[in-house]
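Record 1 of the preview.
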Amino acid sequence: MLTPFFDSHAHLCDDALYPAIEEILDRAAKSNVLHIANICTDAKTLERGLELHKRYPWVHNVASTTPHTVEVDGAEFFPVVKAAALRGDLVAIGETGLDYFYYGHTKETQKHYLRLYLQLAMEINLPIVIHCRDAFADFFTILDEVKEASGKLPRGVLHCFTGTMAEALEVIRRGWFLSLSGIATFKKSIELHEVAKIVPLELLLIETDAPYLAPQAHRGKCNEPSYVIETAKWIAHLKGIPLEHVVEASYQNAKSFFKI
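->
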């Protein structure tokens, strides 16, 4: 029997999934997905996530404002996240970070909140989940600035990594995790296939990013945690190793990262 799966990043409280959450989590459990990191990005999804954890203790909550919405509700949601973290309701801070692909006009606001969330993660000793797209130069600069000022950084993961090989190697050099999603199964994701081959098993997480980015076998469908096996299969294929090795490593890495 395969080692249980850990979906390290899913938006279970998104309106696309939440109305059918019981069925979705039942399918996840039947697919041997025994832990899910549930990403909450606003007050509504966090409230849903806290209630969900009471009913399903294997759903673990992570929260912050995303780079996409910092200008809309960054100031309002940050203290809510901090309070939840201080209560022990979160296993990580995230997804925070930088996204210049669509939101380059908010660069300074994004950088401000990334720094705030990095400081919060260090203050409360929680790991941090990072979204970074077309912004790695600024992202690495901020990490260096924070480390120089404080002498440390939180444990981190680059979720749904889609960067270049050079950017992947820089993440690996820093000892942070790379999390691969269904994008790694897409035929046109050539450079990401090469990244999947070289990322060390000890720094690998896998995720669905549900309801987004369903893997190739389910393209066009609403993604859900039970599909995480498809990404694991493809990574194992690319690496030329048994599926069990990818599943075991990613599962244990996620448990250690989130301290489950």
